[in-house]
């Protein structure tokens, strides 16, 4: 596994291991949604189908050990099955067990350009919310929050998080890098279009959140390729800051976004059956070196940071929301010959897209911009903006599934509460990302939700 893989060089222990977990693990490594060919990979076929059949509770459906050992994976010299072997073995297998052709548990192996059929929604619903100070119980979150805040007991309520969707992907590079965390969930959407990249290098760290729309090809492509585009151009600040580095970095980021847009456009053109021809994505990326930080975004996936004034914790927004309701963004669209009109009560470009800057969106691209907002700062300037050298300074990058239901200040407050509670834990920032994701879900977010929390450390 490459260094950027969330599970690189880590022994992971899970309290449970279900087919949903297997499905999610395969999807996490299938960034472009190409699928895995179990017909030519006996090991995948063995794990995905045969072992599960060995564990069937009903003995009439359970595969016998003899049949299991007849699998081509266990036959010397036949690690790669020929088409004849695949067909012959599958015929034998089907004669014993009726395999449902569209078994949702097998879709992790299939082409994922269209979303899998697996239902990732929780089986239970949270029905009890508790005030952390007085332990009073409520049947709904709104009543609990009103009670806790009006009495100044707490800003957030407690509930059983085990009943909520668990992370499809999680990042926790332990012990190499415990200062960041990532969590995303499909939420209430039928498809997953949020994807991310975390790449940790000796000289820099790269974090990115991509929120796709009208299909997930663009966001998957961006998650798989953008790091290399940026790394190549920003290596100029890995070891030193040359003269006029801010201007050079901003130009390099703009070029990287344009290259990514062009790459997505080419991928869309070659997508199977053209099913993703209108796919697009927002992008919010963070590049950190020992000397500087670079934050760039197009669209409405937001990035914020801690901002202390004495002992008062505030939130500072580093990104810009490129949305059709913003007057300057409307003017940008109109200057390109486009128009803004309402659809579903929301201002949209050509009545379709709520963001004015995006990557991909081939049909709407003439009216959109791919120019990113870029924030650059030395490490010293960043810590001055954070306002303290005595408390943790961190950045939250998230798709709008979080920001639709939480303010900047609420997100910073909740993350800080988790980090303080988990102080000393190597997983505190991973925990913060998970709590933010699930809080957005319990508040009713109807979108995919992806959250990355990154602590910026002093060197």
TrEMBL record:
Residues 179-456 form the PPM-type phosphatase domain. Residues 129-155 form the C2H2-type domain. Pfam families: PP2C. Signal peptide: none annotated. One of its GO terms (molecular function) is protein serine/threonine phosphatase activity. InterPro entries: PP2C (IPR015655), PPM-type-like_dom_sf (IPR036457), PPM-type_phosphatase-like_dom (IPR001932), Znf_C2H2_type (IPR013087). The keyword Transmembrane does not apply. Keywords: Metal-binding, Zinc, Zinc-finger. This is PPM-type phosphatase domain-containing protein. It comes from Thalassiosira oceanica. The lineage of its organism: Eukaryota, Sar, Stramenopiles, Ochrophyta, Bacillariophyta.
